[in-house]
Amino acid sequence: MAGEQSPTVDPRQSGNVSGGQGIRKVPRPGEGWVLCENHREFIAMHLANGVWLTKIRKLLKRQGVDISYPTPYRFAVARLDFNRGTPTVPAADCAPGE
What pTM, to 2 d.p., does this model score? Predict the structure, then answer.
């Protein structure tokens, strides 16, 4: 239609529109994740002391914080570097004994 302007799209928000990606919404954290964030120091302290995550979940439940196991596990991996194995060191390609 003559004289109308098409809406402008901020390229920082649009991604590659021509590629079909468009604007992605960032999901809000769920209730369990928020509870983990609220008890971050508690979880981190116990993990640092070698307490198993299942026990930490039980301790939280005693305080009235009921979270299913997968949520604190994902939280600990994502936010507290829990269960990160040591990186594999590539070995030199050489003859045996060298």
Answer: 0.59
